[in-house]
Request: fold
Amino acid sequence: MVQQERLSDLKARLSEFVNKLDALDPEEASVEDVDRLIAMLDELERQMDD
Reply:
């Protein structure tokens, strides 16, 4: 994947993460919800390192 496509993909995934984080109600968030968010961050980090 060329650099520009990779950057666009990472921006889209980061935007998706922020949207999910904004939609999360802290009063109703479960451990599984937090685990999914952490997994998303881990995936973003792996993609940046590739």
